[in-house]
Specification:
It is a single chain. By secondary structure, this protein is α+β, with helices and mostly antiparallel strands. It has one domain: GHMP Kinase, N-terminal domain (Ribosomal Protein S5, domain 2, 2-Layer Sandwich), CATH 3.30.230. It is built from four helices and nine strands. Strands 1-2-3-5-4 form a five-stranded mixed sheet. A four-stranded antiparallel sheet has the order 7-6-8-9, sandwiched between helices. Helix 1 crosses helix 2 and helix 2 (about 125-140) packs parallel to helix 4 (about 200-235). The model has no long low-confidence stretch (mean pLDDT about 95).
Length: about 240
Amino acid sequence: MAYKKRFDGRGFDETRPIETKVGIIKKADGSAMFKIGNTVAYAAVYGPRELHPRFLQNPVKGLLRVHYNMMPFSGHGERVRPGTSRRGKEISMVTEKALIPVLDLAEFPNAVVDVFIELPQTDAGTRCAGITAASMALADAGLNMKDLVAAVAVGRVDDQIVVDLTYDEEAYEDGTVADIPVAVLPNSGKVTLLQMDGELKREDLKKALEKAQKTAKDIYEVQKKALKERFKAKEVPK
């Protein structure tokens, strides 16, 4: 049976409802929350600060470190084991690579910028939500950025190219499924993350990427709005 209607009733090009907020963790240098459907990501930035141990320091540029963590009982299926995991390390690494292109780490020799991403509730799209939240948190920390990074999962469910897959769509058993997390620099259109789980024809991949770039621009507008509200709240009345 062809996939004619999404499980949650959305259009094939439509994301789940999005909520954002910036400056939510007082003791962090920058912080943000990004919620898309039932997936919630919190990001906190600490730094730039001196990197220890010192043998890891680079006198030419600073280091970006990302720590990604899904909390126990945050998602579908079995309880997530606390502590580091192979999946968490992999997502931390790809998140770093997705964010580094917008930062000038040469400004911070011998220093480190730490980004902590926590997901208390998940329903697919976790790495994309984490990247999007982390981008806003870095901006909230006052770091010079060439652009924000907006991320979304696109893909194919049976015969349909869809935007923002849910867990139920990823687990769809009546046809083929391909899940493609994509991170985009909205102003330039450059892609900083592209992964794929599943198989897809070349023409379908092209369609999926076009939808990802369009959706990233929509997410970018939401990011900008949250940051503007944050900076407006920071303004001191004359």
